[in-house]
Amino acid sequence: MLRRLEGQGETAGRGVSLPEVHRVTERENGDLGYMFYPRSVAVAGASNRAGFSPGRRFVAALVRSGFGGGVYPLNSTGGEVEGLKAYTSILDVPEPLDHVISSIPAAGTPQLMRDSIAKGVKVVHLFTAGFSETGTEEGRRLEAEILSIARKGGIRIVGPNGMGLLCPESGLSFFTTALALKGSVGLLSQSGGNAQELIHAATLEGLGFNKVVSYGNAADLNETDYLEFLASDSSTEIIAGYIEGVRDGGRFPRVLARAAQKKPVILLKGGRTAAGGRAASSHTGSLAGSRAVWQALCRQTGAIDVRNLEEIVDLIKTFTYLSLPRGRNVGVVGLGGGRSVLSSDDCEGAGLNVPQFPEETRRSLSEMIPEAGTSVRNPIDSAPVVVQNLELFARTLGLVARSEVIDFLMVFLYAEVPMYADNPALLQGHVDTVMKAAPTLGKPVVLVLGTGGAEWIAKEVHEARETCLRAGFPIFSSVESAARAISRYIGYHEDRDGRK
Amino acid sequence: MLRRLEGQGETAGRGVSLPEVHRVTERENGDLGYMFYPRSVAVAGASNRAGFSPGRRFVAALVRSGFGGGVYPLNSTGGEVEGLKAYTSILDVPEPLDHVISSIPAAGTPQLMRDSIAKGVKVVHLFTAGFSETGTEEGRRLEAEILSIARKGGIRIVGPNGMGLLCPESGLSFFTTALALKGSVGLLSQSGGNAQELIHAATLEGLGFNKVVSYGNAADLNETDYLEFLASDSSTEIIAGYIEGVRDGGRFPRVLARAAQKKPVILLKGGRTAAGGRAASSHTGSLAGSRAVWQALCRQTGAIDVRNLEEIVDLIKTFTYLSLPRGRNVGVVGLGGGRSVLSSDDCEGAGLNVPQFPEETRRSLSEMIPEAGTSVRNPIDSAPVVVQNLELFARTLGLVARSEVIDFLMVFLYAEVPMYADNPALLQGHVDTVMKAAPTLGKPVVLVLGTGGAEWIAKEVHEARETCLRAGFPIFSSVESAARAISRYIGYHEDRDGRK
After folding, report:
1. For residue B28, what pLDDT is reported?
2. What number is the ipTM of this complex?
């Protein structure tokens, strides 16, 4: 089960190195799924003293997420932590132990590793920092020591310096601000904070996870190992990742190409600039590599290279909720001539097309909306008479959808306009109309609900979003972000079909 | 006072045409300031029947914004509108009339123009659409007719097909969802909806306007006229604009260059793509011209070319609230290693530098924050011990500011992290600490407060933002948007200095 140690020193910490594929030694990690379904978990460093204790937070997270097996706090004094009996040694835990989470100081981790091996533990997750990322000789030595202990003892390390594993199905969890939903996304993140933020943002959108790993310094298992596993994991349908440095630059390109052929792989690269690379080095001891090489790698493999965390969530949402449009031609319906112009620019700027409706569609629209006159070419700049009348609004959607030149519809609403100031309830009316019409239109539909965050419409915006989320209906906060995500979504499939 | 009619037919509706500067005939508009300070206003088409009446909305807007002069609703039946006596003809208004706002159908506007001239009106603003933007012969003919009437009668037209004029100082106003604050921004917008959105967004940020014009089809006065006026207007310190098509392609480049030399000119071009250009044509009858020509024009003149409405507000905020940094070197302080990496990428990607702190600064930081160890290079990834202790947090800011390599500071906080979930009040503590420290640091400071919109921290986020707004402290919603705005701000001054 253990990978070979040869070559580790050569590839660790290197940037992506495309031409080295032939020098790669295959790993033999097998199925890492067992790591996410431990029978029992011990948490070392779970203090019951006042003040911040990461270990106690892990215990609380396991309780909150409904972990089904035994949870054993460990500390130097015993007592109770979060209502659970605490032990002073792993060896005292009164049942077989599969997983250990550690937040004890780095200097104590070699002994923790040895105790874990003696207890028959399978995985040690080191939340503990203070290893190679410090840039010190002592940090590097300690990281090498725990890795050596793990290899000899046949035990795996997650981290160090990461949040570890999360699996809503088993209840294994690190601490998060939002309780992760069960879903189909596999997430690998070198950063714990970014993993927490992604989980929070995805949860607000109703998007769930299957398996998450925040792997920090990647001393043992690294990005390539987790990616390979998630690619083969049948319950993972979408892979998302935040990667600062590729440890296994030889294997990574091939594993990435295979993964992207199987399922969408959405990746954010941290350390794209010189300063970002220096920060990545401080953060997880990564050598970040150049942006150009990374972009080339994504192009060559079919992985989706994104620019920020928000875009990861936009893409997960698109892949999860939107049926694949048959092409890039979007019919845009909204309110406001200026916003229509900017929406067209945003759509075409993102690589979509906004074709003019044929004469027949325009005539039908003009007959229905005599005032509209000039605004029926695409986008439809809906006249007040239409948007104030939900039946006319629904008929507009129908006419647009029937046009042969259109592959999918985008409806944009901006919350802070006089129309909604007059009648805030109309916002929900529009959203309901779109959602009710969508299944009858025969083409995918996305909704954009823009908001500047004004308090006077906040409740209605929140309710409208909730309505969409409950129904699994794709809703975005700007035309720009929607267009960008949908274009990538279509591009992923075009690209994959092209490789077949 | 009237511009010459020659050449109007040649330039109207053309795209930007850089080489034609020599063919320009100078206008003689003089000072347009009087347009924003009428003694009295009549609103034609202010119905008192049930249902939506734009005219009645204009009357209500004038009342709400505290317009000091007479307000006279006009309709076909008389009666009262918004508590004001309505008249059936302009000629019946019982005092001298300076300004008329019209929302009557297009076909009635020639007579309205003639009545206005007979009454001695100075400016007619036509909210009314149905002119050249329809693309019909009749629409073009009507627009030419009203222009001809205006020329002969010595009266100016704003519009048609625009929201008209707004001036918080005089109380002249169109309808908005947020009551515009009095300030130093002059805004010209071809779109009424985009003007409304910009006013709304700016008001949420505490930013005010001096003069706003939404000029639609620009039949009479166009973008070049308004720009020239705002450039010479001493109470306008910042010019912002949304332009779909340049009507006066000959004069525009030179007027823009002169304006940008005097004060910042922030411009968003609608119709940058083929589809956007078609939408602009439907919207305001504009021929949009190519993106490349527009970008070249902005580069050559020193105008600031932005991508969306949000960026306009970000730049107004930056120019209004941030002291000019002496250079592009930013010291970044935040929480989270992954976010630090991404922040560095965002800053350098926007054209800022994130230099490493010198050894001396790093030693001081390490002594103060023994845990931090590796995260003191820049960005400072503040250890929990620091961010939980406001005094240590303030000392960190002081140490960073004292570093010679830093020109300004950026502090980033993300609201939806476990730290604030534990202790939401800490967010305000951090914001207060930054604001209290800022005046003592001797260098500009910006704050980034990122939020995904979760309800559990919404109140604290709102209060933190309000604290900043009340103090005129620059706060942004993402490192990316802050970095981009500040880089443009510095670039504007570098560029202007270079031209001197």
Report:
1. 58
2. 0.90
